[in-house]
């Protein structure tokens, strides 16, 4: 069995990042991750093609397991991304997203 976690030192990561079960977690070197985010296993966050833009993830974002966030996309603040989702478009703040492709299924009330 192989264990893998790719989290290059060039990533811009805000304080408070939590990684649960980091096996299979792959993050591209140009990704931006905001403060107090959660990442789970078997997740890929990266660009869609060589030389393409990379995702920017806002603050207080929870990413479920087996999620792909691909391309030059912006994920807003206080977003929950459900397990198995594929994100290829911008996601506004304060929502729950799920599916392939990811779509808004619920609005989160402000904390």
From TrEMBL:
SUPFAM superfamilies: Trimeric LpxA-like enzymes. It holds the Pfam family Hexapep. InterPro entries: Hexapep, Hexapep_transf_CS, Ser_O-AcTrfase, Trimer_LpxA-like_sf. One of its GO terms (molecular function) is serine O-acetyltransferase activity. It comes from the Bacteria. Keywords: Acyltransferase, Repeat, Transferase. GO terms for biological process: cysteine biosynthetic process from serine. GO terms for cellular component: cytoplasm. PANTHER family: SERINE ACETYLTRANSFERASE. This is Serine acetyltransferase.
């Amino acid at each position: 069995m192989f264990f893998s976690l790719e989290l290059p030192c060039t990533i811009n990561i805000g304080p408070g990042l939590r990684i649960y079960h980091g096996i299979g977690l792959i993050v591209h070197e140009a990704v931006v991750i905001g403060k107090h985010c959660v990442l789970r296993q078997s997740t890929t966050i990266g660009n869609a093609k060589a030389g393409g833009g990379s995702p920017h993830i806002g603050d207080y974002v929870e990413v479920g397991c087996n999620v792909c966030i691909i391309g030059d996309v912006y994920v807003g603040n206080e977003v929950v991304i459900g397990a198995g989702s594929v994100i290829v478009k911008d996601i506004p703040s304060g929502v729950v997203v799920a599916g392939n492709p990811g779509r808004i299924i619920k609005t989160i009330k402000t904390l």
